[in-house]
Specification:
mainly alpha
Amino acid sequence: MKAFKTVMKILVALAAIAGVVYVIATYGDKLTAWAKKLLDKLGCCCCDCCCDCGEQIDEIAEEEVSEVDEKDFEE
């Protein structure tokens, strides 16, 4: 009887994991869009602007890379 309970607990855990994977696979895009909307409403941005921060970060990174000179790496 003890082994049966252990096997059932394992099966229930596997079923729960399979259910979560199914929900994520089926509704993942909708959950991601909902989370982004929620974060936008809360104002969780990396700066105090109303623009796309990802593009600004990419531009800053490109500028910093272009400023690096090969002389910095010579010994």
